[in-house]
Input
Amino acid sequence: MMNMDTLVRIPTWRTVKRNSMKEDSRQLEFMEIDLSEEPITAAVPVPDRTTIVRADFDIKLPGGILSSEKRFVEEARQLIEVEGEQVPWVPFMSYWPTYGVMNEAQRKWYMYWRTEVRQGRFPDTDLSYLFIHIYELINGIGWQKPLEGYDQLKQLWMNYRERLPQLDVYMQEWILDYDLVHELNMSLSEMVELSSGYLPPEILDMELQRLLSSNVSDISLKLLQRYYDYDITLSKFYRDGGKQVLEQYIPRVMALVDSYLLRTRKAGILDQFELIHERTIERTLFRKAVYDDSIYGKSVQMTYVPIGEHADFVQFVTRVFRCTENKCRELLGFRGRLRGKTLEPEFANVIERYLDKAFAAEQMPVVEQAIVRIDAEKLAALQQESEYVRRALMIEDEQVPEDGNVNHATDVSNRWDGLETLAEIEQDTDSQGHVIIQNSVDEAQSEDDTYSSQLKVDGEKAINSDRGQGSGDSESSTLQWEETVFADLDEEWTEFSGQLSPQHVQAIYALLGVNPDTELMRVAEQYGTMPALLLDEINDMAMETIGDLLIDGDRIVSDYMNVFEHVKR
Output
């Protein structure tokens, strides 16, 4: 039996219920709890603040109360030149890492690690060490020019992101803030690639607007992922190899569509949807970082066009992507097609026609280039002939050639001597005699000039033969346009002409000739390639400049023949 003094009788829920129902006729039921022993609880001691180890940096701070951010910056400025010697690694994890929460061993490791990083070496370490160095850089400590700080931040990110994946969450935001604060205007496309496209919507909109205005072909698949109305990464085609294909062709297709709109409707993608209404927001700088906002301010203004909120644009881009992916699926023999609203036949035909050509070019077997063997004896003979011609061209009028042209040179020299004597004899005669003498001199000079000109022509022929036959003259190295037309050529055609190499120019002339197949084969053999490869290269340059395929099959597209009618042949 238990001691009743240690018992506590507690009414059960059933008793309370019955009491509330005024059922007092039944006996109360109790449950017993033993309180004779003390309850066992988990002991959690509160640490004494005096036991928290603080690093002894021998730092003198200005008087007055400083915020933790200002204190960090003041300490960083005094430690900027400190270098560390190699010491053992010491773990360091802190939610809010600063110098003050490091002990002596951690401080020594940090100084050694920072010295290594500044010299381009990146040993393994903890994330908290990285944060302290990053805080230094974003507060303007450790660099002379803003671009130097940007490069250091980027190097830290690139060298530690695989070892410390948590770094991505912070760095993709902080580097953007750093770029905005210092107005570096760095490529946001690079940031998009580094962050796998997971950037704030306003940043993505800013970069897309810039590319649509300047260089559409630089738009990447990662950047466009935000502007599709479905998640392309869930597609089986995307996961089973289609990602690489789409990354390759989506930018080209976007450039193709933009160029086609400019040519047919006089307005590119950006103007087609009137993406001009701007929005300005305040972006808070360096969130979750130890940052003194008295240095660069608390926020920065950003002005952008909210492209992602434009429903018509999103639908158009989605249909372009769907059309491109379905055509790629077809060409790669992948079963299944994406469903939904299709693209206008006008645009779909342009895209499918381009992809047919592009895939056909990639499937073409690579032809091994012909091996060039040089005949040493023939080369020596050509060099000797060239040297002879070079010397002949440098001969002065009074010098005599060394070989078979001696007689001719002697005759010319004798003729000059005779004319000089005749001039001396008849110098006192009348003007008629002077005219006769002068005419004789002019005749001799003319004959000698003719001979010199002939030597020069022979020399040029020999030099050309020394370089190899069929290399083409200077006129065939660039397209020769009619003067009246050249001034009125569109900028894209001028750019296209400027990108052509001599072999491409000759290939175009061959296509414009009477026997295009024969001439094109001759050009291909001359440059050790194949006709189809030459035409594909021309098409690639045309896509980058005029935004369309120039050659269909093995002939210039009829739509562009009116342009080439003004090329001199």
Notes: The first strand starts at residue 7 and ends at 11.
